[in-house]
Protein 1
Amino acid sequence: MTVSTNNILVTGGAGFIGSNFVLHWLAQRGGQLINLDVLSYAGNPENLASLRDDRRYKLVHGDICDASLVNTVLREHRPSAIVHFAAESHVDRSIADPGAFIRTNVQGTFTLLEQAKQYWLTLDDAGRKSFRFLHVSTDEVYGSLGPQDAAFCETTAYAPNSPYAASKAASDHLVRAYHHTFGLPVLTTNCSNNYGPFQFPEKLIPLMILNALEGKPLPVYGDGGNVRDWLFVEDHCSAIRTVLDRGRVGQTYNIGGNSERKNLDVVTAICDIVDELRPDAALTPRRRLIQFVKDRPGHDRRYAIDASKIEHELGWKPTEQFEDGLRKTVAWYLEHAGWVESVRTGAYLEWIRQNYEQRTSR
């Protein structure tokens, strides 16, 4: 069997990073893109509404744990690559329901790898040589850093501290094993915290934007001193395309934004931008809405990415400065009230109540 050279399969392409990747891929590439997505609470087909009449795009509503469905999709569309985004990704949800993370992130990745291997073995020599399985993972698999510790590099030992991080670490190890045991041509990327359009508003940046806009409390865990390296989602998408095009088979590439910030500094910056773009005398300054709340169990103190490998080997580095990317992100949420309301369903509101409103102030 031959591959369709320009066809790719994306899993989880209706989610935050996945939908940004789909849009940017189709803006620059030909061929067909098949999006396999279970359309859970964080998977929104409206993220890709602009592709509704685009014949290059096909949405398959289904679960990566469904081996028969994955097999059918691969054999019908014969992609030359799989880009695997599909995952449960919110640490707080993994604390409340670890089982869902084991199912999707571990069992789902295993199912996808097994079906990809069987499909890959049916390809002719050229198809097997050109095929790629790119697994998108997280810096959280490396654990937590101290204030003076060197940033995570690709050889940093894994030390996951949350059920989410542990499930992603397990999936990373499965991907590695399928390469070393079966020869499947894999690539793995571990990225820092993403931000940008279409992010489900349970995550820090969109939650704070919307709460600040509406004059609601801004819940900050602990003392707000936890540090993250922030990566604009469009930069992440360009990095994934670069790794897919030129990455060495079997290798891992860390992707970071070179933008370490304390959570509290991120929240205050959001307050100031919302004050500027949506002034309201009754709410300004919105910094006074900040409320320190009981910390998340096992909250990692600091993440930082050393992205020198991808820069030196593949010539990629982030282009978006955090201050500019954050302003673009705030503006997007302020300008897309309809999208926001469509995703804030009753189930979402119950989760916010459960996870934030019931936390006691410090």
Protein 2
Amino acid sequence: MEMRKEEIIEIGKRLYLKNLTVATSGNISIKTDKGIYITASGSSLGSLKKEDIVLTDLEGNEISQGKASSEKKLHVAIYKLRPEINAIIHTHPVYLTSFAACHKSLKEPIMSENILYFEDIPVAKYAMPSSDELVKNTIKHLKKRDVVMMANHGAIAIASSLEDAFAKIETAEYYAQVTLNTHIIGKPKYLSDEDISDLLKLKHSRR
């Protein structure tokens, strides 16, 4: 129990230091055999304490003291949709959120990492934060993707471990920044269809 909380606290600090979260935005969770450890409503990811992490059952009902994040319904739905997923990070990084605010998906083949990690990063249709509609709009894309932007909101990354979820949100933010920079500098030069095919073969061979 303590180890799980410490893991979430450490990732929260790293998200803050990497400018991937601000103030009290975002939430983190880990699924375990005891239930779901999730950050509390109104907590700051950059300065989490053990009491800021709430244990819920797999339906999102609080087991320990504290009020779980208002986005707990989304976390619960993702864990039900993808049983192999054990960690979720939802945050509001500057570049990903900027693309989300423009309702612009990330799919330009400008570097190998975005093909290997994502293939593309779609934008889920806007819905009120914490709403059932937000859950519905977002998990539709998470059936086949591990990172999704939420229109006018932020982004979410899912993985088998919290470390991997962090790597995905960090890499997605980097991809968004590079995409923006290439258009500022000039017209980006895309990877060829052959390059993309080779990268996808490499990606699938690693599974």
Protein 3
Amino acid sequence: MSEPASISSGIAERYATAVFEIAKETKTLAELEGGLDDLSAALAESAELRELNSSPVISREEQGKAIAAIADKMGLQPVLKNTLGLMAEKRRLFVLPQLVDQLRAMLAAEKGEVTAEVVSAKALTKTQSEKLSKTLADRIGKDVKINATVDEALIGGLVVKVGSKMIDTSIASKLSSLQNAMKEVG
């Protein structure tokens, strides 16, 4: 991990721990999870929000006002709204994506869940996703939440990552290994 990335991760972890502990004490973990989903979607969809978080040109006051207005509009719970305001004041909004990731990991651990990153050639149907989640849960022994993405370059099959384990059943991977085997023969 590069030094700036590890610094960002450390900053995000400290804020995430504080937010998580407060939400746990006030028994608002479910609301926190909903707010994180909304915030994550906003970060993914809005280039302006990403620019607001990382631009050195925008003053602390402007960042604070903008993020407070966004938090109000989204209906984020007070602990998350206040944390975002503090992060703007301290010029730490650039770690917002890592904060969301850290909080999601803490919430999953609290619920005994594991997230599986699944890449498929075509979008999984709800039935396929549920069946995969159940199969993984049986093997791992924990509830599994599926985070699915589509990559048509796989041609077919799946690439599943759970923690440090990866299962690659994609046709593209099988073709690549076949190609390597043919190179060794000829």
Protein 4
Amino acid sequence: MREFDYKALKNRTWSNEIVSCVAQIHEHKGRQELYLAAKPAALDRLIEIARIQSTEGSNSIEGIRTTGSRLRQLVADKTTPRNRDEEEIIGYRNVLDLIHESYEYIPVRPSYILQLHRDLLRYTGHSYGGSFKSAPNEIGTVLPSGETVTLFTPLEPHEVPGAMEQLCDAYNTAIAEGEVDPLILIPCFVLDFLCIHPFKDGNGRMSRLLTLLLLYREGYLVGRYVSIEKAIADTKDAYYGALSAADTGWHAGENDPNPFIEYLLGVVLSCYRDFDSRVSVVEGAGARSTSYDIVKRYALGKVSAFAKRDALEACPSLGSSSVESALKKLVDDGTLIRIGAGRKTRYVRSDSIDGESQS
């Protein structure tokens, strides 16, 4: 069986991209602590947006979906699930909230991971929630021809309990010794978890929840304010490509984790950059700024078309009607040009194209 020991990581040489990402994330973490100390009201709005996007993003990767309005109602606990997909969504929301609120009291141990998995599948009626798999599972894909191809064969069921114990022990030992940066350890743990594939169902969603848990426990809280799961969903092909590149030779302990480390740290860094930009929109506009000033500052920083929803997410101190009113004024005064109509409405800076506003 594959053995787990992260001590050897301290002697590895990492790519320039990994080293750069680690350094930049450390810098962002320092600014994060300043933002949290100031506690602007806008942070509460960011949390609300991130909860919705995280629940939607992580489930959509697995093909679990509902309508936008139903999703918002489910996340806000204003309705009950109507079908299997919505039962899965409610379970993810609950575990996500639990990690947000209690990450300091959720140690990295198999028993706790099993409990999180139980809660993830609590509303589905599946009997295997909270239990390791009892039958082999394979990670595969279906070719355009209809042929199913096996991409990776995880551990056998009888190997899983011991592997999960070793995995958690190795991670906790490495964290306690402090010789390997947590930003290196966390992607390695997640990669190994996915290769073990300890559950019959829910492995992907659990891996993303565990990513948040491990980051939060080490003080990297950006996932509370900007959805890491959405960032993964938006780059799903790169996510699977990195996994495929990093799991080759895994059973013999000869795999190279670099591709997955680079990918996951790139996602975390992009979320920190997004966090900085959203907070700076509010702070840079000044205490006496109107909604028009805040949205204008955001709009002038865009080099591509954007929707009202994008502006609403980027300006967390504002409500929907305030953003809509500001966008109208920016179109009226010629700062922006409106393209399309209805749900397809987008806005671009007037200095980016020639032509008149299109309704």
